[in-house]
Write a structure and sequence with these properties.
This protein has 6 helices and 5 strands. By secondary structure, it is an alpha/beta fold. It has a single domain, classed as Alpha-Beta Complex (Protein-Tyrosine Phosphatase, Chain A), CATH 3.90.190. Strands 1-2-5-3-4 form a 5-stranded mixed β-sheet, sandwiched between helices. A hairpin with a 4-residue loop joins strand 1 and strand 2. It is globular. The termini are far apart.
Length: about 150
Protein backbone atom coordinates (compact mmCIF):
# COMPACT_ATOMS: atom_id res chain seq x y z
CA UNK A 1 0.00 0.00 0.00
CA UNK A 2 1.45 3.33 -1.07
CA UNK A 3 -0.54 5.20 1.59
CA UNK A 4 1.52 3.36 4.20
CA UNK A 5 4.39 5.62 3.08
CA UNK A 6 2.55 8.72 4.33
CA UNK A 7 4.42 10.16 7.33
CA UNK A 8 3.12 8.65 10.62
CA UNK A 9 0.40 6.74 8.74
CA UNK A 10 -2.01 4.61 10.78
CA UNK A 11 -4.64 2.35 9.22
CA UNK A 12 -7.27 2.72 11.95
CA UNK A 13 -9.85 0.53 10.20
CA UNK A 14 -10.79 -0.65 6.71
CA UNK A 15 -12.46 2.73 6.23
CA UNK A 16 -10.22 5.16 8.16
CA UNK A 17 -6.58 6.06 7.55
CA UNK A 18 -4.75 8.84 9.37
CA UNK A 19 -1.41 10.43 8.72
CA UNK A 20 0.80 13.41 8.18
CA UNK A 21 0.84 15.50 5.02
CA UNK A 22 0.58 13.31 1.94
CA UNK A 23 2.29 14.16 -1.31
CA UNK A 24 0.40 14.52 -4.59
CA UNK A 25 1.51 10.98 -5.48
CA UNK A 26 0.32 9.61 -2.14
CA UNK A 27 -3.07 11.24 -2.65
CA UNK A 28 -3.29 9.55 -6.07
CA UNK A 29 -2.36 6.26 -4.40
CA UNK A 30 -5.04 6.83 -1.77
CA UNK A 31 -7.63 7.24 -4.50
CA UNK A 32 -6.34 4.09 -6.19
CA UNK A 33 -6.66 2.26 -2.85
CA UNK A 34 -10.32 3.19 -2.63
CA UNK A 35 -10.23 6.33 -0.53
CA UNK A 36 -13.13 8.58 -1.46
CA UNK A 37 -12.59 11.55 0.85
CA UNK A 38 -9.84 13.58 2.49
CA UNK A 39 -10.13 15.63 5.66
CA UNK A 40 -7.20 18.01 6.23
CA UNK A 41 -6.67 19.55 9.68
CA UNK A 42 -3.43 21.38 8.87
CA UNK A 43 -3.34 25.09 8.10
CA UNK A 44 -2.65 25.87 4.43
CA UNK A 45 0.48 27.70 5.47
CA UNK A 46 1.89 24.92 7.66
CA UNK A 47 5.59 25.60 7.29
CA UNK A 48 7.44 22.94 5.27
CA UNK A 49 4.36 20.70 5.29
CA UNK A 50 1.41 22.04 3.30
CA UNK A 51 0.77 20.79 -0.21
CA UNK A 52 0.23 23.73 -2.53
CA UNK A 53 -3.36 23.90 -3.78
CA UNK A 54 -4.31 20.68 -1.99
CA UNK A 55 -8.03 21.23 -2.42
CA UNK A 56 -7.72 21.29 -6.21
CA UNK A 57 -5.36 18.31 -6.23
CA UNK A 58 -7.84 16.28 -4.19
CA UNK A 59 -10.98 17.35 -6.04
CA UNK A 60 -9.27 16.82 -9.41
CA UNK A 61 -8.75 13.22 -8.27
CA UNK A 62 -12.50 12.97 -7.78
CA UNK A 63 -12.32 12.88 -3.99
CA UNK A 64 -14.41 14.79 -1.47
CA UNK A 65 -12.34 17.40 0.37
CA UNK A 66 -12.85 19.01 3.77
CA UNK A 67 -10.33 21.50 5.12
CA UNK A 68 -10.52 22.47 8.78
CA UNK A 69 -7.32 24.43 9.53
CA UNK A 70 -6.33 23.97 13.17
CA UNK A 71 -3.59 26.21 14.56
CA UNK A 72 -1.12 24.14 16.58
CA UNK A 73 -1.17 26.52 19.54
CA UNK A 74 -4.89 27.33 19.44
CA UNK A 75 -7.20 24.38 18.73
CA UNK A 76 -10.84 25.41 19.13
CA UNK A 77 -14.04 23.55 20.04
CA UNK A 78 -15.79 24.75 16.87
CA UNK A 79 -13.07 23.04 14.82
CA UNK A 80 -13.89 19.74 16.49
CA UNK A 81 -17.58 20.36 15.77
CA UNK A 82 -16.68 20.99 12.10
CA UNK A 83 -14.64 17.78 12.09
CA UNK A 84 -17.59 15.80 13.47
CA UNK A 85 -19.84 17.34 10.79
CA UNK A 86 -17.31 16.43 8.07
CA UNK A 87 -17.15 12.85 9.36
CA UNK A 88 -20.95 12.67 9.27
CA UNK A 89 -20.93 13.99 5.67
CA UNK A 90 -18.31 11.43 4.68
CA UNK A 91 -20.56 8.72 6.08
CA UNK A 92 -19.45 5.20 5.16
CA UNK A 93 -16.93 6.33 2.56
CA UNK A 94 -13.27 5.46 2.97
CA UNK A 95 -11.53 8.58 4.32
CA UNK A 96 -7.94 9.73 4.73
CA UNK A 97 -7.65 12.18 7.61
CA UNK A 98 -4.41 14.12 7.78
CA UNK A 99 -2.61 17.12 9.20
CA UNK A 100 1.09 17.93 9.10
CA UNK A 101 2.29 14.95 11.16
CA UNK A 102 -0.83 13.11 12.52
CA UNK A 103 -0.80 14.80 15.93
CA UNK A 104 -3.91 16.96 15.46
CA UNK A 105 -5.64 14.09 13.67
CA UNK A 106 -5.13 11.50 16.40
CA UNK A 107 -6.41 14.01 18.97
CA UNK A 108 -9.50 14.78 16.89
CA UNK A 109 -10.25 11.28 15.61
CA UNK A 110 -9.78 9.56 18.98
CA UNK A 111 -12.21 12.03 20.55
CA UNK A 112 -14.66 11.55 17.69
CA UNK A 113 -14.38 7.78 18.11
CA UNK A 114 -15.27 8.02 21.81
CA UNK A 115 -18.28 10.21 21.12
CA UNK A 116 -19.58 8.58 17.93
CA UNK A 117 -18.07 5.12 17.47
CA UNK A 118 -18.27 3.69 20.97
CA UNK A 119 -14.53 3.63 21.62
CA UNK A 120 -13.32 3.41 25.19
CA UNK A 121 -10.96 6.01 26.60
CA UNK A 122 -8.28 3.32 26.60
CA UNK A 123 -8.70 2.68 22.86
CA UNK A 124 -8.58 6.40 22.15
CA UNK A 125 -5.54 6.94 24.36
CA UNK A 126 -3.74 4.08 22.62
CA UNK A 127 -4.22 5.76 19.23
CA UNK A 128 -3.05 9.13 20.56
CA UNK A 129 -0.02 7.55 22.25
CA UNK A 130 1.16 5.90 19.02
CA UNK A 131 1.93 9.35 17.62
CA UNK A 132 2.26 11.71 20.57
CA UNK A 133 4.75 9.46 22.39
CA UNK A 134 6.83 8.80 19.28
CA UNK A 135 8.76 12.08 19.30
CA UNK A 136 9.76 13.87 22.53
CA UNK A 137 9.96 17.15 20.60
CA UNK A 138 6.18 17.09 20.28
CA UNK A 139 5.26 15.76 23.70
CA UNK A 140 1.70 16.66 24.56
CA UNK A 141 1.52 20.02 26.30
CA UNK A 142 -1.19 21.51 28.50
CA UNK A 143 -2.94 23.15 25.55
CA UNK A 144 -3.58 19.79 23.90
CA UNK A 145 -4.23 17.95 27.17
CA UNK A 146 -6.97 20.43 28.07
CA UNK A 147 -8.33 20.46 24.53
CA UNK A 148 -8.62 16.68 24.30
CA UNK A 149 -10.29 16.51 27.70
CA UNK A 150 -12.79 19.19 26.64
CA UNK A 151 -13.75 17.66 23.28
CA UNK A 152 -14.11 14.15 24.65
CA UNK A 153 -16.85 15.34 26.99
CA UNK A 154 -20.24 15.84 25.28
Amino acid sequence: MATAGIFNFIQVSDRIGTGGQPTREQLEAARDEGYQAVINLAPSDAENFALADEEHVVTDLGLIYHHIPVAWTDPRPEQFAAFCAAMQQVGDRKVLIHCAANYRVTAFFSSYAIRHLGWTTEQADALVSRIWNSNPRYAMDDIWRRYIAAIRTP
